[in-house]
Amino acid sequence: MSALDSLSLTAIPPEDEALRGPVREFLAQAMNSVPAHVRARSWSGYDSNFSRELGRKGWLGLTLPREYGGAGRSPHARYVLVEEFLNWGAPVGSHWIADRQSAPLILKYGTQEQKRFYIPPICRGESFFCIGMSEPNAGSDLASVKTRATRNDAGWLLNGQKIWTTNAHHCHYMIALVRTSGSAEDRHEGLSQVIVELKLPGVTVRPIRDLSGDSHFCEVFFDNVQLAADALIGDEGKGWEQVTAELAFERSGPERLYSGIVLFDEWLAFVRTPAGRTPESVRLAGRIVAQLAPLRAMSIAVTGKLARGESPIVEAALVKDLGTGVEQLIPAAIADDLYRRDTAGVPLELLHTLDYVTQVAPSFSLRGGTRDILRGMIARGLGLR
């Protein structure tokens, strides 16, 4: 039986679905005056005050144990919240990584001291994390990382570089995949994960401006950064196993379907007007929804496996790869629809939002793993290689 045979339809439990109403009521007020082209930035949007407000409402760390400040609820509860945040275009980028994967990683592999120190402020929306995986010249080959942590009397001495690190210039910590033994030729052997406080001496963070004018990507340099002995998460040399499990959280959620959902909703509102409705636009709306609906069902099914304590690595890769296709279809197809018309009749805010999403859409098939890497994982899961 392949890894995908067990991916069956899953319903969000009623007690978790009940969260949707209060969240929508809150977001209707919080996002009321925010234009669509700003809301389209959602999970790269940085707003620490918004994150702290979510923390005060108990809407961060939903799946984490109460003893560490969480709510002790199922992954389905978090799914409902994240889906609403993205649909409304809420600025979740500040707490996003910490809530989605850093805290669960620390919970699974960290010591009791690490759990008590790092997780409660994440749940309060006060502590932000970034991911230290990608490196220059490594491409999609994550196992070839060269950033090295060398053990010394004080703990670990860190040297190297990371790149494409989202919001590193706003974050307090990075969980970095580093080499603690061997060389890049050793591949998965000798890799470990460490927590790096980004204010330590020797850490330099440089934002990278992208095509849209945003600067949420960064490059991060480590020059003889001294880490304490307790910076290591989990067992030394087990970093590949840990980071692979972590990526299941990153690849399976609604964020892999809804990067262009604010644009889609803005366009759909126009199509519903007499001036915007054409036979072609109605067919396109049906085409997009017909792809989003089964992908959402798949994403919820993966969430169900996470709720059962499983690690659906291959299934998450499939959701991410297929989701990327829809995410990149949305701006391309909408542009085709709008620019075959007289754009004088198209709302300016819709065109502004389309412009932004079009510029960032190429990155959708890079973040969280490139298509070639993901499809190799899927092929192995299906027994095809």
Word description of this protein:
- The chain is α+β, with helices and mostly antiparallel strands.
- It folds into three domains: 14-127, Butyryl-Coa Dehydrogenase, subunit A, domain 1 (Orthogonal Bundle); 131-237, Butyryl-CoA Dehydrogenase, subunit A, domain 2; 241-381, Butyryl-CoA Dehydrogenase, subunit A, domain 3 (Up-down Bundle).
- 45% of the residues lie in helices and 14% in strands.
- The chain has 13 helices and eight strands.
- Strands 1-4-5-8 form a four-stranded mixed sheet, covered by helices on one side. A four-stranded antiparallel sheet has the order 2-3-7-6, with no helix packed on it.
- Helix 6 (96-109) runs antiparallel to helix 7 (112-123), helix 9 runs antiparallel to helix 12 and helix 11 crosses helix 13 (371-381).
- The longest helix is centred in the C-terminal third of the chain and has 29 residues, at 279-307.
Strand content: 5-15%
| Main beta-sheet annotation | 4 strands, mixed
Strand segment tally: 8
The fold-level CATH name of the largest domain is Butyryl-CoA Dehydrogenase, subunit A, domain 3
The amount of helix comes to 40-55%
**So, the CATH homologous superfamily of the largest domain?**
Butyryl-CoA Dehydrogenase, subunit A, domain 3
- Strands of the widest sheet, in order across it, are 1-4-5-8
The number of distinct helices, counting runs of at least 4 residues, comes to 13
Question: What overall form do the CA principal axes indicate?
Answer: globular
CATH class of the largest domain: Mainly Alpha
* Rg (CA only): 21 Å
Could you list the spans in which at least 5 consecutive residues all have pLDDT below 50? none
Spell the H/E element sequence.
HHHHHHHEEEEEEEEHHHHHH
N- and C-termini, Cα separation: 15 Å
Please give the domain count: 3
Query: Helix/strand/pairing class, anyone?
Result: alpha+beta
Mean pLDDT: 89
Give the oligomeric state of the chains in this entry, treating copies of one chain as homo and distinct chains as hetero. Answer: single chain
